[in-house]
Design brief:
- With 198 residues, the protein is mainly α.
- The protein has eight helices and no strands.
- The protein is elongated.
- It comes from Caballeronia mineralivorans PML1(12).
Amino acid sequence: MEALNQTLFLLINASAQPNSDVVALAMLFGEYAIWLVPATLVLGWLRGNDTLRQRLIEASASALLALLAAQIIGVMWPHPRPFMIGLGHTLIVHGADSSFPSDHLTFCWAVAFSLLMHPEARRAGSVLALIGLPMAWARIYIGVHFPFDIVGAALVSGISAWLCALTGRWFAAPVVRAAMIAYRPLFAPLIRRGWVTR
C-alpha cells in the first residue's frame, strides 16, 4: 500500500521546474482556501436563523472532533511527510510532523459533511466539499501530503460528521441559546440596520 501511496504522490506532485501559474493555483488552494471554512461559519451565523446556527454549531463540533481524532492518529501512527523521506518536490516550508490524515482536509470536510446532512445547510456544505477537491490536489502538488492522507481525512471527517449528526440535537440548540444572550446585545446596532440577522 505504501508503494502505491508513493507512486500516486509522484504522479501528482510538482516537477523540478513547475509552471508558475500552476504553482500559484496550488498555493491558492493549498494554503489560503482553508479560510473559506471559518468564513462560511461566521457568515452563516451572522446572516442565518437559529436553525441554521444550530447546524453551524454541529459543524463546528464535527471539525473539533475530527481534528482531535487526527491528532490522536498522528501520535499513535506517525507517518512521515514526503519531504521527510526525500520524496518528490516541496514548494513550501512545513513542520516535520505526521502527515496522516491531512489537517486541512479534515477541517474542511468535517464542516462540509456535517452541513451536507441538513437541507437548510446543504448548499454551503456542497460548496465546501467541492473546494476540498482542488485543496486535496494542491496539498499533494506542493509536496506536504500523500494521497492516502487525503483519503484518511475524508474517513475521519465523515465519521465525525455522522457522530455529531447523531448527537447534535442534545447540544446544538442549548449552545445557540446561550450564545444569543451575548450576540444580540453586542450586535444590536447591526441587527437594527439589517446588516446581520437577529
